[in-house]
Structures are given as structure tokens and as C-alpha cells.
Amino acid sequence: MVDPIWFATRMQGVALVPESSWWLLGAIVSLYFGARHHVKTSSFKNKSQQRSRLHRL
Hints:
Distance between the termini: 60 Å
Order of helices and strands: HH
Shape: elongated
Number of helices: 2
Largest sheet: none
Number of strands: 0
Strand content: under 5%
Helix content: over 70%
């Protein structure tokens, strides 16, 4: 670690955040990345299906 005092002060600030806020943040981040994964996989499947249709023609 480059500056342990800087890190210690940041961790003291993080310790002041209530636990319920961490749960809320975790839920928001999970939903964001879950939706992002869903959109990316569904667009990949759609592109794959479009390519297979073009090859059939």
C-alpha cells in the first residue's frame, strides 16, 4: 500500500455508512449488472438468429 494513513481514513468513513445502505447499494448494483447481462445476451442471441436466417435463404 502506498499510503496506509490515507487508506485508514477512507475506511473509517466507510465504517460510518449504515448497513441498510450497503444492502440497498448491493441491490441496485446487482439489478444494473443483471439487466446489462440480460440485454447483452439477448442481443447476441438475436444477432445469431438473424445470421442463421440469412444463411437459410
